[in-house]
Design brief:
Blueprint: H1 2-8, H2 11-30, H3 36-61, H4 69-86, H5 94-117, H6 122-140, E1 146-147, H7 150-157, E2 159-165, E3 170-175, H8 178-194, H9 196-206, H10 208-213, H11 218-244, E4 246-247, H12 255-265, H13 277-293, H14 301-331
Antiparallel strand pairs: 1-4, 2-3
Helix pairs in contact: 2-13, 3-8, 3-9, 3-11, 3-12, 3-13, 4-5, 4-6, 4-11, 5-6, 5-11, 7-11, 8-9, 9-11, 12-13, 12-14
């Protein structure tokens, strides 16, 4: 009975229920939601925001808000692509990913230094560095849309399988970049669940002073978080450019708000200390369905934004109510 009560208190259950109800509604109205190509397209659409959400989860759980990861991804993607094009690179795709990760790591560590050593507010720092990175890309590098190197183009064209919708006469492919998302999920799940570093991330989000007294190295943990988030963003940027077959410097603009909202919607407490990868992925899935599938039932684009905003407010409100309820029970 107690275990069942705990399950019904979990935000993930309600987000999953919302996904099921919305999916059934779209299917009932359009008859196309559960078609093979639509499910593959939805999965394809959540790969990049899913990669970003892993980093966003780690930052929010630690008590911060990072809005710079799309700028990091864009600059890493553009710098890597332009350098490789200038060198006429035609080698394996591993090098672009390594370069993207290293560029992202450097920018993430820059954020980490300002936050961990100088104790600047996370949101203020990442707002500033986001503008800085975009300014470097657009001003110093004179960014514009460019093609990707052959290895990235071929990588983006590779797929695990292809499905075909005979009714609509369209096909969809499952890209191999899905393995990047899966690998990061497995890595971070192990990190957060089974390591002292992972417990430290939750601890400093819950109470940084108590975490420091308990022996956690606050500066080292924060440097790891922002370095990892930067590297993951760089990898996500390379994957994005490969999937769309070109490098567009503004293609990721605005995605950070959707990702952060989805992570919070999935039950991650904005004040830190509580959050799960499952909740983050469910939040991303719900937001992806909202943005990609409402057109199937004839909902215009502007109404999609209204529905998306309403779901974000309702979801975060539910999370806040649950947090207050837990706090009141602990004080009783």
């Amino acid at each position: 009975m107690i275990q069942a009560k705990k399950i019904f208190q979990r935000t993930e259950l309600y987000i999953f229920g919302a996904i099921v109800l919305l999916s059934l509604l779209i299917q009932a109205r359009s008859g196309q939601f559960f078609t093979n190509n639509n499910l593959v397209d939805l999965t394809r659409s959540l790969i990049i925001p899913g990669i970003f959400s892993i980093g966003a989860l780690m930052v929010i759980v630690s008590g911060g808000i990072d809005v710079s990861f799309t700028a990091v991804a864009s600059l890493s993607m553009y710098a890597t692509t332009s350098i490789l094009l200038a060198q006429d690179y035609s080698g394996p795709v591993l090098l672009p990913y390594v370069m993207g990760a290293l560029f992202g790591l450097a920018m993430g560590l820059f954020n980490g230094v300002l936050i961990a050593y100088f104790h600047f507010p996370t949101l203020v720092v990442t707002l500033g560095t986001s503008s800085l990175f975009i300014g470097i890309m657009q001003g110093v590098l004179a960014a514009h849309e460019i093609p990707v190197p052959p290895s990235m183009r071929l990588h983006g064209q590779n797929y695990l399988f292809r499905v075909y919708n005979n009714t609509l006469n369209i096909g969809s492919e499952m890209p191999v970049t899905i393995f990047i998302l899966i690998a990061l999920l497995v890595l971070v799940f192990f990190l957060l669940r089974y390591t002292m570093l992972g417990r430290g991330i939750f601890a400093i989000g819950g109470d940084e002073v108590s975490a420091q007294r308990a022996g956690y190295k606050i500066i080292g943990i924060k440097m790891f978080i922002y370095g990892f988030v930067g590297a993951a963003a760089g990898i996500g940027g390379i994957a994005r450019a490969s999937m769309i077959q070109n490098c567009h410097p503004t293609n990721l603009n605005g995605m950070e708000m959707t990702v952060i909202a989805a992570v919070v919607l999935g039950g991650t407490r904005v004040t830190g200390g509580i959050g799960t990868l499952l909740g983050a992925m469910l939040g991303i899935a719900l937001m992806t369905i909202m943005s990609n599938s409402l057109i199937l039932i004839g909902v215009p684009t502007y109404w999609q934004k209204v529905f998306t905003g309403a779901i974000i407010i309702i979801g975060t409100g539910v999370s806040a109510c649950q947090a207050n309820s837990r706090k009141q029970r602990s004080m009783a």
